[in-house]
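thought: fold this chain, then report.
action: predict
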Amino acid sequence: MFKRALVLGAVVAAPLLLWLGSDSSAEAGQERAPVEPKLSWIANQPAPAPAGPAEAVAPGELAEPHATAAPRVPRPRQLDPIARTDTALETDLETLVDRWFVRAREVSGGKLTGPETEVSVHVRDLATGATIADLRGSRLMRPASNLKLLTTAAGLVLMGPEGEFVTPFGITGRQSGAVVDGDLVVLAGGDPFCKDGSLGAVEARLDAVAEQLRQGGIRHIRGDLVLDEGDFLEPGIGPAWPSSNQHWADYCALAAGLTLNGGVLEARVTPGAVGAKASLEVHPAPHGLDTKYGVMTVPGTASRVLVGATTNRVTVSGKYGASNQPYEAAFRHPDPVGLFGAVLRDRLERGGISIDGETVRRRGPPEDLRLVGSLRSPITDSLVPINTHSNNGVADQLFFTLGHHFGGGGTRAGGQRAVVAALEQLGIDTAGLVQVDGSGLSRDNLVAPTHFTGLLAAALVDLDAGDLAARQYLQSLAIAGVTGTLERRMRGGPAQGRCFAKTGFIDGTSSLSGLVRTADGRDLVFSILVNYPSISSLNTRAWKPMQDAMVERLVTGTL
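observation:
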């Protein structure tokens, strides 16, 4: 266990936004920001990795509202205090920094200057924990999506590799036969209810509520459907997020105590005959908002499709070429709690459970609440979406859930307290660390490369011993040249299949941290963080290639 559309996005008319992407991650979306007011060509969007279904729990099995599996207490990793610096490695890494800084200056047209650009690198030997390369590795930096490494590690430490998101529900008032003269109350548990691999399948994960009610003999609720958000924060824009013209995008999904599909809507358009309407699906459905739907099929491949969701309406409209393949586009729902309520109410009706009252939102369960069941999802369902595919909404859901259970509330402060507690159990010095979300989307986060390498050394040290948590953690990372946000990086080179890492990008920040298996059989953990001025194309044309070259140097032992 732990030892411890081709993306050409656009703002069309605020607040209705357009962006159709080939990657739902923050680093993919913001690499193209800021965007200009125009429509986009559209391409298919890859689906996240599958997640298992929520499980029904019989009423008698539910001991308390927010139960999770009890993890073993981790033993702190004793990192070797003696640095065994590899002088040749440090020299080569510095050479790569210099080489790619020159390239970055060329890309910027001479605008980039040294004092505004910070590159920090730290490398440890996994077996000993000893530092073998340190280029300003203790400097606090914006980590971007590398912050997800902290969030997911904390989840495994605090909840255990068999931990679960739990969403309890109960009834108030009196039950007489099949009729409840009261409310149906759902208690927030922070479950993102990740997509399980096929468009439209996520809604069915809520069918277990109707099933458990039927098992209890309930068919009719005379009161309201009450969504109890508990101590979770109100859904909203995070501090120091990207500019408002990006807030509609899926990578700016809002976290909440109750949500579905990580708070993201997905549209699929399939062209029909020329002059006829294209086939259109939007899921999860129903989403609780008004709609403006209508995509006409036109000749050829030329396409202009507008997508987005305002406070009141979802829009998918425009023209799509008959010669194109179907595409999927993802975008943020403005009210994740409302989305959850709309879908749950629909699934209850489909399952034969009628409700007379309204869907209402409250905080704090009533005194006469009697729990009758729950939905459970393994936290491991969220690890691949978070680390391999860099799903921001799911990462934030886990962060706030940790705060809810272990930090005094499902808030930013609660989440940070929970993560710090987990890192301290792993023996990590958290001095200077600032974490305001689980995703790294905020520019207020501050982490040093030494934090990441210390964490990775503690998390993965028992990997060879077959530890379940260590294996799950490693398997959640993208693999160079093979999966996720690293699928197209280092492909065909010496690092393909040997680098397991988390990528990161927000405007002015590029990062890569993980584990690399060298050609001579050593396991090294590394962290490369770059903070730089907001200049277009530097990430893809300089910093990502620099990171890849550094990883390949770690693999081969030569520059």
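thought: worth noting. The first strand starts at residue 10 and ends at 13.
final: tokens above.
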